[in-house]
Design brief:
This protein is of the alpha+beta class and 101 residues long. It is built from 3 helices and 4 strands. A 4-stranded antiparallel beta sheet has the order 1-2-3-4, with no helix packed on it.
Length: 101
């Protein structure tokens, strides 16, 4: 089996970020994430910082609505399970998980 530089770098980064073979994101922690929490609140709850995947800003409509910014963050475990959270103006708007235990 040939190990490439990218594979080795990925393994090193995963172990530095998540801890070797660890799964810090659990269903119990996911269930505690609530609408209105900040990114900092969620990072503290989970114990590791999420990765910002995208940012979108909806322009203001004068006299109708203010500008709104959406951020999508994700947290991943070494087993591939994930938690993704959408923040609207810095507060949790929605969340989804895949494979958490």
């Amino acid at each position: 089996m040939k190990i490439t530089f990218k594979t080795m770098l990925f393994a090193i980064l995963c172990s530095l970020i998540l801890g070797c073979g660890s799964n810090p994101i659990t269903m119990e922690k996911y269930d505690k994430v609530e609408v209105g929490m900040s990114v900092s609140d969620v990072n503290t709850l989970v114990g590791v910082n999420g990765i910002e995947r995208s940012t979108t800003t909806k322009s203001a409509v004068p006299g109708v609505s203010a500008a709104t910014t959406y951020h999508v963050y994700s947290w991943a475990n070494s087993d591939g399970s994930t938690m993704t959270v959408v923040f609207q103006d810095g507060k949790v708007m929605s969340k989804i998980q895949l494979g958490l235990k």
